Amino acid sequence: MRVLLASRNAKKLAELRRIVAAEQLDGIEIIGLDEVPDFPEAPETGATFEDNAVAKAVDAAAATGLPSIADDSGIAVDALNGMPGVLSARWSGKHGDDQANLDLVLNQLGDTPDERRGAAFVCALALVVPGAEPVVLRGEWRGTLLRAQHGTNGFGYDPIFVPEGETRTSAELSPAEKDADSHRGRAIRLLVPHLRALG
Amino acid sequence: MRVLLASRNAKKLAELRRIVAAEQLDGIEIIGLDEVPDFPEAPETGATFEDNAVAKAVDAAAATGLPSIADDSGIAVDALNGMPGVLSARWSGKHGDDQANLDLVLNQLGDTPDERRGAAFVCALALVVPGAEPVVLRGEWRGTLLRAQHGTNGFGYDPIFVPEGETRTSAELSPAEKDADSHRGRAIRLLVPHLRALG
């Protein structure tokens, strides 16, 4: 069965496919928005990750008739009262400019002492099967923010985020190490039983 | 009696002097940090407006022996979970660049619908008299944020802030109108009885 991930982000698509493969969900083929012609994309204006994920998955299921997964994720920085949050991808005002977004958080936290540099990566995942109620799941990954970036794996705020129990940033972890612990890995694993029920 | 306002901001100094004059606190002369040679300035690293105001006033009173007032103020934007908050003056990463800070908030709120554009200006004021416990006061001024700037009075985020009950931004109000309602005006009026007790 084809399941649509309502995203054009190749890294998110690869991440979901890796986990689906590892879970031996052999009946499930994950496709991305690039394989859906003329998909009408709506802006993300929700106040929460969950609102955005559900809205995207509902739109995708309505447009395609396919079971559709959408995620919204970002980083919640304690010293910024949980922001950038839903604005993580456009925190600097430039949508998708990872370096500008990361630099702005580093500058905003400039004077913040180590004990107040906590943060969490958060991922909300929604699965919408046409005709059924949305399933919404949430994964969190706690850590602390460095004062400079390290590592080149991952994306977004990975180069400044050191997960709890780690000494490396999440941009220094291998993809497999990241999948095992990350917010998105946690949320996707919560999704697995729901995908298995489709297959 | 000389009372030190622990600030180099000429507009804040003028604002406090106007209100002191209006309240006929004739025994009180407000001086600013520019009149205090070699004042050791510490970075503002507190988690709250109150923490920063008290820290500044304590430093000022210790350095000069004068009754010392310090303020910390900023804007708390609902859709940013109360940020920029204590980072209002350096939200863009550039300390004191009002235009960059305001532009960043406008960009961050770009997609945010009208009903979620609420905000409050907040001012914490501390008065530290050598040998006495600090007095800490707080004024708030609720309003909503526009999508573009209007007006040239005031400073900081004034050009995008429309106070409750107003149709103009706080940068379109006269200084007297602003004093009458503003967060800083409210906090300073709460301070007046404490200043009167000194004089």
From TrEMBL, chains A, B:
Any one Gene Ontology cellular component term annotated for this protein: cytosol
GO molecular function, one term: dITP diphosphatase activity
Reactions it catalyzes: XTP + H2O = XMP + diphosphate + H(+); dITP + H2O = dIMP + diphosphate + H(+); ITP + H2O = IMP + diphosphate + H(+)
UniProt keyword list: Hydrolase, Magnesium, Metal-binding, Nucleotide metabolism, Nucleotide-binding
SUPFAM superfamilies in UniProt: ITPase-like
Catalytic site positions: 72
Species this chain originates from: Crossiella cryophila
Note on how the cofactor is bound: Binds 1 Mg(2+) ion per subunit.
Quaternary structure and partners: Homodimer.
Stored Pfam families: Ham1p_like
InterPro entries for the chain: dITP/XTP_pyrophosphatase (IPR020922), ITPase-like_fam (IPR029001), RdgB/HAM1 (IPR002637)
Annotated binding of substrate, by residue: 7-12, 73, 155-158, 178, 183-184
Gene3D superfamilies referenced in this protein's UniProt entry, alphabetically: 3.90.950.10
Function in brief: Pyrophosphatase that catalyzes the hydrolysis of nucleoside triphosphates to their monophosphate derivatives, with a high preference for the non-canonical purine nucleotides XTP (xanthosine triphosphate), dITP (deoxyinosine triphosphate) and ITP. Seems to function as a house-cleaning enzyme that removes non-canonical purine nucleotides from the nucleotide pool, thus preventing their incorporation into DNA/RNA and avoiding chromosomal lesions.
Enzyme Commission code(s) on record: 3.6.1.66
UniProt lineage: Bacteria, Bacillati, Actinomycetota, Actinomycetes, Pseudonocardiales
EC class of the enzyme, as a word: hydrolase
Sequence positions that bind Mg(2+): 72
CDD domains: HAM1
Family named by the database record: Belongs to the HAM1 NTPase family.
Protein name per UniProt: dITP/XTP pyrophosphatase
Cofactor(s) annotated in UniProt: Mg(2+)
BP terms from Gene Ontology: nucleotide metabolic process; purine nucleoside triphosphate catabolic process
